[in-house]
Amino acid sequence: MKRAAVIVVFFGSLILIWQLAAMSGRWSPVLLPPPAAIADYLWGAMSDGSLLEATAVTLYRLLIGYAIGLLLGLPLGLLTSTSEYFEDTSARSRSGCRRCRACAGCRWRCSGLARPMAQCCSWW
Known about the structure:
Elements: H1 2-23, H2 35-48, H3 50-82, H4 84-91, H5 106-109
Helix pairs in contact: 3-4
């Protein structure tokens, strides 16, 4: 019960701060609408069905983007990981760490602008 009270107080405080910031007039209502305006919009969009329709369109676009990324990225990743030629040619376009078989995750944690974060990482 105490945890629920903490959660309610926390989010209530966030909404109160949001309301006070919107009422201050420092920001345009277009940039920072008050919580009541957002609640009214959401209620209206739910009641007329436009929120469900917009959600379906957004999910459709998300799935299309995911499918394109999967269809392009998976074959390229498999080709790069299985072919020395493609590994060498694609490695030239990556800045940062070269491939290290000891810990494969190190190549994603450091970039050309940062210092290596693990011993297996090395500069080109």
